[in-house]
Write a structure and sequence with these properties.
By secondary structure, this protein is α+β, with helices and mostly antiparallel strands. It has 34 helices and 39 strands. InterPro entries: Biofilm_reg_signaling (IPR052155), EAL_dom (IPR001633), EAL_sf (IPR035919), GAF-like_dom_sf (IPR029016), GGDEF_dom (IPR000160), Nucleotide_cyclase (IPR029787), PAC (IPR001610), PAS (IPR000014).
Length: 986
Amino acid sequence: MRAVNTDLRSPFFQGIIEQDAAGNVMAINPVAENLLRLNQQALTQHTMQSVWGGKLYRSDQKQITKEQHPVFIALHSHMPSSCIAYLYNSEHFQSILITSIPILDPETLMPIKVISTLLDVVALQKTDNVAQIQLHQLEAIERISRINLQAGTFKETLHSSLEALLDIFDCDRAALIYPCDPSAGELTIPMECTRPEWPGAFDLDLNVPIDNDTAVVLQACLDNAGPVRYDALSFHSVPRQIKEEFSVKSQLMLALHPKVDKPWGLVIHHCDKPHVFTNEELWLFDEIGHRLAESLSSLITLRNMKESEERFRTLVENAPEAIFVLDVKSNRIIDANENAALLFGRPRDELIGSNYLTLSPGVQPDGQSSSELACRFVNDTVAGETPVYEWVYQNSRGNHIVCETRLVKLPAAGKELIRGSITDISGRKQTEAQQQKFSMALEQTADAIMITNADGIIEYTNKSFEAITGYSLAEVVGKTPRILKSTGPTQNQPAFYEKLWRTIKSGEVFNDVLINKRKDGSIYYEEKTITPLKSAAGEITHFISTGRDISERMRTQEYLQFLAHHDVLTQLPNRVLFIDRLEHAIINANRNNSMIAVLFADLDRFKFINDTLGHDTGDLVLKMVSGRFISSLRSGDTVSRQGGDEFAILLENIKSTEQITLICEKLLKSVSQSMLINEQELFVSVSIGISVFPGDSLNPQVLIKHADIAMYRAKESGRNNFQYFSPEMSSRAAERLTMETSLRKALERGEFSLYYQPQISLHGNNLIGFEALLRWQHPKKGLISPLQFIPILEETGLIVPVGEWVLESACHQLKQWHEIDHELHLSVNISNRQFNDRNLEEKFHSIIRCSGVNPACLELELTESLLMMNPVKTEQILNSFCDIGIGLSIDDFGTGYSSLSYLRRFPLDTLKIDRSFVRDITTDVNDAALISAIIAMAKSLQLTVIAEGVETHDQLEFLRGLDCEMAQGFLFHKPLPAFDAGRLIK
């Protein structure tokens, strides 16, 4: 606001009055004294109601009240106010335009004074031309003042003001420039308004570099107290670039000086035709500019305050700590962020307004009163301190929370406010307690513990480390773990150590098996886990290594794994490993929505080579064909030998059948090339059958079967070709749906029954028990194979109620048989789906208890894959069965999970050798060696072995020769109904 000026140079005189925030007159110029017929001394004697010595009236002759007076409005709204009022004197009513503008304190934004301008409207109207001009000026000023009085946003107020300028000066473009500073380097256009035919010249809020011409214009504005004109009568001309680019014919520009921030620039353009600015227009532009500057002062201050408040609120809301604001006088929380509500377990609106002292238990852990101690910290904060202390709070559920609290006094007029920041350190306190236990556990654990710094220098080893490696702590401190490095194949690969260091330096845990060397030079396998340790700042400071000597286990496991999953002759995966990979491929294909193909390949007339050239030559042919298969396939594909001259190939990530066709053509061409064996040239060919997932089947065994069928079709088609499997999909789907529908009613209709296959002791040739097998007697189709309906039971979940029925029926049957032979055992299978039932233990215990059967005579058969689905949960369930005497058996041993660690972990009693290994033990050296190893391993682990699928006397004698304890199979008896099985017992 400009100061009161008695040297008026405007086209007409205006009265000016300056008053303080209470309305007391501080200064008045002669024009105002003349208009009001009073001097300053007389004015100071009047109240706000009768300010300036007379009553003011509206145009309807109603008296203007105190609250309607522009001075009152300006002081209370903090914004300019104006009106046309009528003052009564002895002669007539006199009309006066009153405009009151508050002057705000930059820090508190409270009014410190108000300045009012008075114009005699009637006097202005006594002349024609001058009066019209002056009335236009009055209306323009009142219009701008009215816009500034409206409670609009920053942008809205600027836009409305510029729109008014277009109308007031009949110009084509009006804009605000920020900053009006030639040294700023860049400027922006916060707001611009134009006539429709003259579109905007500037992009709003875009940074525009200040060139030399623009800098000259800006400097001219700063150097002039009033507007700078660019027209035919001025000393300045519009810069050529601006004139041409924005079609400027005339320009009027003024520097605005708000009380905060840098100067702004106000500019209007005439673009249609040149315009010569009159003195009245220059004066009016100057007056409007000053009013806009005053408005900008308030708007910028309010905007800055709002942005500051929003930034503060954002910081508080997004702070990781729980933050609250406390009113010291009332001890009540007047604000809190969402983290505070979460910490105390209360809705935010409920937390706000609550008493701060109620958020703590009665006493703190040291026995001191929470309220007394809290008041002491609050008083210290009010006194200017910033206390940081550990405190126990209590949430809405009554749980205690250990926290770190920081109090800070907030600036506030007339109030004492404190901001509190709370960090939950319960986890940290627990960690400190656990560290004590951890240090004790390190010394007492059976694992070898080694701690190194971030560079790998050994700082600590425990006693188990010395027992395993032979090195004492004193011998290894300051050295690196390379002291244990052996010449094993894994450790000689640089990529191994690169992966190790890359893993642990990235903060991840490293797990692997290492081949290390003891102090005495002996080699041992170590199951190693290396875990990075981080500081509070997140930096890795140490590595902790735990190791376990697994040498014996690894030797056995490596041998068994190779025999169980590979063909000895070709080194290819065998059928067990192939099925495992096929199952995983199906899972991945489902996840990735891709295709896989199974190829079943059989060498044409290979028997002729064996019969004429001998088995040694045949073996060499198989090896060479294996190599040609591998070289013709992609790196991710799998080739396996199924037995004899049969191979199965798995193709993953297939995009189309055309891709499969190209691969098969490549295989046929590769195999058919001549081969030189023992200086004799041979030619072989291959027939290939193809099945595709998911089109041909979702089941791995069925996919192999379909590929096998297609292979025989290829042979029937002349050999040395390939054929795709082509089943009738609609009929097969309908048949499966019908079977599923029938299965859903089979249990309640009593269509299920149990058959019992005898289990024979090979030592005494006597019956020792049975395996209970589920059968389904369909009312129309007769006896259905379990291979057909059990997978459907698994998929639909019906296996759970059916499995309970099986166990219940088997237990009641065993109870009856115990009246004849109380030592008779019975094995019952548990499916994977059934094992995952959350109520499994409760149901099984209830069934066994209700049947009255001796649990020691009952054995549950589980698959290897079932055991490893959730080892922790599985171990808990198996231990509960073991506790009541139930025996546990691994069914189809050797066909499932590739690790044998579960044999030591779980409380197992029996291993059942899968029939697929027993079938060829007298003709296949691989199967014979595998069964021999399984039996030897089982005996070393004190496990009983039973072989299933024994069908010939040669198989029986072979198993007896290996000291296998039990067997079952068609050689002894096929599965029997309960009645026939009971006759065997008698």
